[in-house]
Write a structure and sequence with these properties.
- The protein is an all-alpha fold and 217 residues long.
- It has ten helices and no strands.
- The chain has two domains: 21-30 and 42-121, Tetratricopeptide repeat domain (Serine Threonine Protein Phosphatase 5, Tetratricopeptide repeat), CATH 1.25.40; 130-217, Alpha Horseshoe (Serine Threonine Protein Phosphatase 5, Tetratricopeptide repeat), CATH 1.25.40.10.
- It has helices at residues 6-27, 44-63, 67-80, 85-98, 103-117, 123-135, 138-151, 156-169, 174-186, 190-213.
- The radius of gyration is 25 Å and the shape is elongated.
Length: 217
C-alpha cells in the first residue's frame, strides 16, 4: 500500500484490514492489508480458492432459484480456474434451465469440458445425452447414455434414460435386456418398476424371435 499522510494512511490501512477480513470470511481467500498486485499472476492454489468461492456462491444462488446470479458465479469460477469440472457441470445445468437461444449447445460445451476434466464422473456425460434426447437425436442420446454407463454402470438416470431411448428407437438388444435387469434391482418407484417389467417382456420376446430367425435354440 502506498504511503500517504499519517492520518490518511492509518485510516486507509484500517479500512483495508476490515475489507480483507470480510474477504477471508466470505470467499476463504488469503490476503493482508497490502492487497494484491494486479500485475502479479495468481498461484494455482489462490486461483482455486477464489474459484471455489464463486462456485459455492453459484450453488447458493442456484438453490435459491436465482439462476442468472448462479450462471454469473459459475462463469467467474471457470474463468478463474478453468480446471474445475464440477463448476463446468453446474454452469451447464444452470444455462440449460435458462433455455435461451443457443443455450443448449452452450450447455453441451460446458458438459463436455466437465467430462474431459474428470473422466470418472458420469453426470456431465449423461447430461449431454439428455440434451440430444430432448432434441430428438435419439442415436446420439443413446451413445452418450452408454458412455455415462461405462463410467458408472449403476447410474440410475443414465440407465433409465438409455432404456427409454432404446424403446423409442425400437432397439431391443442383449445390452438393453441387461440394463433392464440391472434397473429392476435399483429402482423403487412403482411406475418405473411397471414400465421396466413391460419392457423386459417385450425385449425378451424380441430376442427370442431374433434367435429363432437365425436358427438358435
Amino acid at each position: 500500500m502506498r504511503n500517504g499522510t499519517s492520518t490518511g494512511s492509518r485510516l486507509t490501512r484500517s479500512r483495508c484490514c476490515a475489507m480483507a477480513a470480510l474477504v477471508v470470511v466470505t470467499l476463504a481467500t488469503l490476503g493482508g492489508c497490502a492487497g494484491r498486485n494486479d500485475d502479479m499472476p495468481l498461484s494455482p492454489e489462490v486461483r482455486l480458492r477464489e474459484a471455489t468461492g464463486y462456485f459455492e456462491a453459484g450453488n447458493t444462488a442456484y438453490r435459491a432459484k436465482r439462476n442468472d446470479e448462479a450462471i454469473e458465479n459459475y462463469q467467474k469460477a471457470v474463468e478463474t480456474y478453468k480446471e474445475l469440472p464440477y463448476a463446468w457441470n453446474n454452469l451447464g445445468k444452470a444455462v440449460l434451465e435458462r433455455d435461451q437461444q443457443g443455450d443448449r449447445m452452450y450447455a453441451a460445451d460446458c458438459f463436455k469440458m466437465a467430462a474431459d476434466l474428470d473422466r470418472t464422473d458420469w453426470r456431465p456425460v449423461a447430461n449431454i445425452g439428455s440434451i440430444y434426447h430432448k432434441l430428438g437425436y435419439l442415436d446420439d442420446a443413446a451413445k452418450w447414455y452408454g458412455l455415462a454407463l461405462e463410467r458408472e454402470p449403476n447410474a440410475e438416470p443414465a440407465l433409465l434414460n438409455s432404456i427409454l431411448v432404446d424403446h423409442l428407437r425400437d432397439q431391443r438388444t442383449e445390452e438393453t435386456a441387461a440394463r433392464i435387469r440391472r434397473a429392476l434391482l435399483l429402482v423403487t418407484d412403482p411406475e418405473w418398476q411397471a414400465y421396466l417389467r413391460r419392457q423386459r417382456e417385450i425385449v425378451h420376446g424380441r430376442l427370442l424371435e431374433s434367435r429363432s430367425s437365425v436358427g438358435q435354440p
